[in-house]
UniProtKB/TrEMBL annotation:
Signal peptide: 1-25
Protein name: PAR1 protein
Keywords, in A-Z order: Signal
PANTHER family reported for this sequence: PAR1 PROTEIN
Amino acid sequence: MAFSSSPSSFILFLVSSLLLHAAFGELICEELPNDKCAFSIASSGKRCLLEKYARENGEMEYQCRTSEVIVERMSEYIETDQCVSACGVDRSSVGISSDSLLEPQFTAKLCSSNCYHNCPNIIDLYFNLAAGEGNTSYSPCPFL
């Protein structure tokens, strides 16, 4: 049986591939849709990262990639939409920066009870970003 190269066959193949990985419990960043990439963790324990690059024709394109950042206590995890909203983060963010920790509105959401107590992945990410800046005693939520 020959493999058809029609768009619908490709989509069917892609969906089947994702379901097959899901059946085996394997989460691979490069196979995630862009709208689920940021704040996800692969089966390997490495964070997924949304990257932007220019195609040969100059158009910008986004792609989910596996970063080198390892999460100690989590793997195979896609952050919930509730946590994304509660913590004030944006799934369409390209890369991750600690700059947002300087914004009082952001830290207020990050340190809110809904985020801090229910979204350990996002809290871990931003606490580690703060520590990575060289200040291991810094906490974005000093009152907690």
